[in-house]
Design a protein that fits this description.
Blueprint: H1 2-5, H2 34-54, H3 62-83, H4 90-117, H5 127-147, H6 159-163, H7 172-207
Helix pairs in contact: 2-3, 3-4, 4-5, 4-7, 5-7
Length: 208
């Protein structure tokens, strides 16, 4: 949000979740506060890694372990997105971003399936619906990019020429890219809240 507030864009436009891609927030050529976005990724990635590993306490199955391994790879990808902004090293940035997005969507989906399968509910099964929604959003993004190829950060390094072609109000590539990320963050946040709530209930029962 801070990087978005400081965003100026190549045409001196403000940032919009409807027609800008996520990676633009980390591009110093567009956002004077891009360093906030990139440092945020570097700081939050180790925290997310700890959270991914901690899911073993509530989802100890082998399938969930596979999901965690993929999640670790996705988290590493997210870390390097902050190391390599799109306007500094496009190839490394795109590779890292692809690992993060695909890995993140697969991780949330696998863990959601395991939540649905758990015999003893240690996480709310309602989280499954959010997890499957994340997969649907990611699939919609992939299908759109494949079915309707067009300009995006992953296909061009001439950013000024690229964004001269961007629709002024709504750009499906940017909007559909945001949806799975918002879904992943929402899933993680709600799963963490649910875990804290269950821990408190358990402690209260033990004390009683």
């Amino acid at each position: 949000m801070i990087a978005a507030l400081g965003f100026t864009g190549y045409e001196h436009e403000g940032y919009s979740f409807l027609n800008h891609q996520i990676s633009e927030l980390g591009m110093g050529s567009e956002s004077p506060l891009a360093w906030v976005f990139n440092v945020g990724l570097l700081v939050s990635s180790p925290m997310l890694l700890v959270y991914i590993l901690s899911t073993r306490a509530v989802l100890p199955s082998r399938i969930a372990t596979i999901g965690r391994m993929i999640g670790i790879a996705a988290d590493i990808g997210g870390f390097f997105v902050g190391i390599f902004p799109a306007d500094v090293n496009p190839v490394a940035h795109n590779t890292s971003a692809i690992i993060f997005f695909i890995g993140g969507a697969v991780t949330v989906t696998i863990l959601s399936v395991e939540i649905a399968r758990q015999p003893e509910a240690k996480l709310g099964k309602w989280l499954c619906f959010i997890g499957f929604a994340v997969l649907a959003c990611f699939a919609a993004y992939i299908v759109y990019v494949i079915a309707i190829p067009g300009p995006s950060l992953s296909t061009s390094t001439d950013f000024r020429a690229l964004y001269a072609l961007r629709p002024p109000v709504f750009w499906a590539v940017g909007f559909l890219e945001w949806l799975p990320l918002i879904g992943m963050l929402l899933w993680i946040f709600l799963a963490a809240i649910d875990t804290l709530r269950r821990d408190r209930l358990y402690i209260r029962r033990r004390i009683a």
